[in-house]
């Protein structure tokens, strides 16, 4: 009972503020409204919010002034930083106050975030629209809606998932905080003017369970996600070799006119780059290291793969690169440190925004362990991998079929045993052009995928033009 009682003053204050804002809504619009200006907002790290960066770039390309608002823990893409139409406004990532019960700490953090976000959004250049990422939506949806009332702006929510389902992974579905978050998300989500979402399954769920009408805007790869030429691969490998041992050349002696990585070698005399004979296969996965991705599945599959190589099955050595930042990274790094492989090397770098697509375009196989907390969103990492014509093994969940076509552009697995069998099957004839791995890559090349810019112009641009 203590938790709900603690929330009563907040509810009362919220209702009073709600009434005041409804009154403000009836006031005339600000006379100097900057027509067409858009605030693209996320209560998270801008550098790790690629879809919102893509929104900002697309809006700027079509003549809109853009305020890009969020945390600056990680550097955004250079295209964002060098675009004169995009103004970045940083907000501070607040830490939890380590005083009192956890629920009290959480409430205080939400209140502090709400005040900071409200104040910042009132200070920025006046937007005609605020395009908000959800999740995280607590408190950003309510705060942004209030700002839109005061400034007479239109609120557009881009639904990537449901915040309360992510919270349920930590607290359980029946926790009071999760139940309040679900009620809040559905209530304030209905107050938006327009909505986008990432899958048709989410579109149907929003309509059925929240009475929210949304437009499906599938994640699509940006133009810089493509297969990487060998010369550029070599430059990246040599750069990464300075910090990560798996990219360094072996102990064999080489000619002084040859520059060599674990995968490529450059003949300095003529500039030719070739692949190293019997090179390892490059396996890549990316993650935010959160509860919705179980990397023990991959680690167990790699143990199985190692046993097969030790038993004499002709399989290539592996370099497994897992990129990303997040709360569980230290936990998994400890597990990785305890594993002693002879034929597999694992590294967990954080890559610059410009290097990530180059590495994807250089890899042989992608692995995705994203298991949607709602079952309604799709992993953007797979979209990016497909943009690089990189075949993928992805863990199964409800709507994955909207993206991964099993046995056509990749494979779907349910556990570590299935993943291990898929790795062995795909890499058995590596690196010949007759393998199933090569067939998947050929299918991806032939698919002529729609890119983000084209998809955005077909789906999002009409909303701004017609309103």
Report on this model:
- The structure is a single chain.
- The radius of gyration is 24 Å and the shape is globular.
- Strand 4, helix 5 (140-151) and strand 5 (154-159) form a beta-alpha-beta unit.
- By secondary structure, the chain is an alpha/beta fold.
- A seven-stranded parallel beta sheet has the order 3-2-1-4-5-6-7, with helices on both faces.
- It has helices spanning 2-25, 50-61, 78-81, 102-123, 140-151, 163-171, 176-189, 200-210, 230-241, 296-310, 329-337, 355-360, 380-387, 416-427, 436-446, 452-459, 461-466; strands spanning 38-45, 66-71, 86-90, 129-134, 154-159, 194-197, 215-216, 258-260, 264-267, 272-275, 281-286, 318-323, 344-347, 365-368, 392-395, 410-413.
Topology:
Elements: H1 2-25, E1 38-45, H2 50-61, E2 66-71, H3 78-81, E3 86-90, H4 102-123, E4 129-134, H5 140-151, E5 154-159, H6 163-171, H7 176-189, E6 194-197, H8 200-210, E7 215-216, H9 230-241, E8 258-260, E9 264-267, E10 272-275, E11 281-286, H10 296-310, E12 318-323, H11 329-337, E13 344-347, H12 355-360, E14 365-368, H13 380-387, E15 392-395, E16 410-413, H14 416-427, H15 436-446, H16 452-459, H17 461-466
Parallel strand pairs: 1-2, 1-4, 2-3, 4-5, 5-6, 6-7, 11-12, 11-14, 12-13, 14-15, 15-16
Antiparallel strand pairs: 8-9, 9-10
Helix pairs in contact: 1-5, 4-5, 6-7, 10-14
């Amino acid at each position: 009972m203590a938790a709900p009682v603690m929330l009563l003053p907040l509810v009362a204050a919220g209702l009073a503020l709600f009434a005041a804002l409804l009154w403000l809504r009836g006031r005339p619009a600000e006379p100097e409204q900057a027509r067409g200006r858009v605030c693209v907002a996320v209560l998270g790290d801008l550098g790790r919010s690629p879809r919102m960066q893509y929104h900002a770039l697309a809006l700027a390309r079509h003549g809109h002034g853009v305020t890009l608002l969020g945390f600056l823990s990680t550097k955004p893409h250079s295209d964002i930083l060098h675009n004169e139409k995009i103004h970045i406004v940083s907000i501070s990532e607040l830490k939890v106050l380590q005083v009192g019960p956890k629920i009290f700490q959480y409430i205080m953090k939400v209140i502090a975030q709400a005040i900071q976000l409200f104040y910042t959004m009132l200070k920025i250049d006046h937007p005609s629209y605020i395009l908000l990422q959800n999740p995280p939506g607590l408190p950003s949806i309510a705060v942004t809606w209030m700002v839109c009332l005061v400034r007479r702006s239109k609120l557009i929510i881009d639904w990537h998932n449901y915040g309360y389902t992510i919270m349920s992974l930590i607290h359980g579905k029946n926790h009071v905080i999760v139940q309040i978050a679900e009620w809040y998300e559905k209530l304030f989500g209905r107050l938006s003017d327009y909505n986008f979402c990432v899958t048709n399954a989410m579109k149907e769920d929003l309509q059925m369970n929240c009475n929210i009408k949304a437009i499906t805007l599938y994640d699509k790869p940006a133009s810089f996600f493509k297969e990487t030429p060998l010369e550029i691969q070599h430059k990246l490998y040599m750069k990464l070799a300075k910090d990560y041992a798996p990219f360094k050349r072996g102990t064999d002696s080489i000619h002084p006119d040859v520059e060599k990585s674990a995968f490529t070698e450059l003949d300095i005399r003529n500039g030719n780059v070739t692949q190293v004979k019997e090179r390892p296969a490059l396996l890549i996965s990316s993650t935010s290291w959160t509860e919705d991705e179980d990397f023990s599945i991959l680690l167990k599959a790699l143990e199985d793969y190692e046993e097969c190589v030790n038993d004499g099955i002709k399989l290539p050595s592996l370099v497994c690169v897992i990129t990303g930042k997040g709360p569980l990274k230290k936990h998994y790094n400890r597990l990785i440190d305890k594993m002693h492989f002879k034929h597999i090397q694992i590294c967990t770098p954080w890559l610059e925004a410009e290097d990530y697509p180059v590495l994807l375009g250089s890899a042989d196989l992608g692995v995705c362990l994203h298991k949607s907390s709602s079952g309604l969103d799709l992993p953007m990492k797979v979209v990016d991998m497909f943009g690089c014509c990189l075949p993928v093994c992805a863990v199964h969940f409800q709507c994955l079929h909207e993206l991964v076509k099993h046995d056509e552009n990749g494979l779907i697995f349910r556990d570590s045993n299935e993943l291990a069998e898929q790795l062995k099957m795909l890499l058995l004839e590596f690196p010949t052009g007759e393998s199933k791995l090569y067939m998947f890559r050929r299918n991806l090349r032939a698919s002529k995928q729609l890119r983000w810019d084209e998809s955005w112009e077909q789906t999002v641009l009409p909303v701004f033009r017609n309103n």
